[in-house]
Amino acid sequence: MDQRAPNLLDEALGLVDEEKTKPWPLSSRVVLVEDRVETSGAFVLHHLLKRALSPHSSNDVVVFLAFSQPFSHYDRVLRKLGCNLTAQRENNRFFFLDLLMSEFPDGDEGNKDGLVALYGKIEKVVSTSFQENKKCITIVIDDFSLMEVAANGATNYVLDFLRYCHTLTLAFGCSLVVLNHEDIYSSIERPALILQMEYLADILIKAEPLATGLATDVHGQLTVLNKEIRDEQGSSRNKICNFHFRVKENGVEYFYPGSKT
């Protein structure tokens, strides 16, 4: 059984459903996780991966594009969280695309063709899963910056790739989750690139160090911007949540500033 108590991150994302009767709240949505070199946001990917592969959502599928870490790393981390990726892969619920050593051929055509081929693999899994009546398909990119490296710095083509993946969220009700490092770009290139990615995102999650500096019992703060949330009257609004986090061996603790003594 997946005995999971609601936490502040789940609440901010709208994932609190005790009866497990509602559709996956992230369907047809793009989630962008932005972190810093000194404050990794990888734990957010781990959390969403576990949620998407929950026993309560046994008809859901994850397509994972790994540019940052091998399968063994994620399998080890998720086992500590109570999720067996090896078993999920054998059950055709977890499709792992190992892209650690990927490098597309030089030149515009090489970069373009490499990304087109990668998109073709994703689209094949998505369309096949959709035909098999899978409820929700989540596409995860574990490091957008390394995807740029694989594409020889062809940022425009990588952004086009994201836009094509975005069309899958609209056509098949997929979720798209992307992790990017906000502080690795120069002041010149950062604004346009980050703004375009944030424009695509329905949910923006920022993992940042504490404004007051380092603390032994607090590893950073999360800001979650959930765009166009609809209330009971049908009106849309943006929802912003901010809280602290502490990464532990078998999970992450979330709490409001000043609530821990």
Automatic annotation (TrEMBL):
GO (cellular component) term, any one: elongator holoenzyme complex
Pfam families found in the cross-reference section? ELP6 (PF09807)
InterPro entries for the chain: ELP6, P-loop_NTPase
**GO biological process assignments:** tRNA wobble uridine modification
Its annotated pathway reads: tRNA modification; 5-methoxycarbonylmethyl-2-thiouridine-tRNA biosynthesis
Q: Which PANTHER family match?
A: ELONGATOR COMPLEX PROTEIN 6
Record family assignment = Belongs to the ELP6 family.
UniProt protein name = Elongator complex protein 6
What is the organism lineage in this UniProt record? Answer: Eukaryota, Viridiplantae, Streptophyta, Embryophyta, Tracheophyta
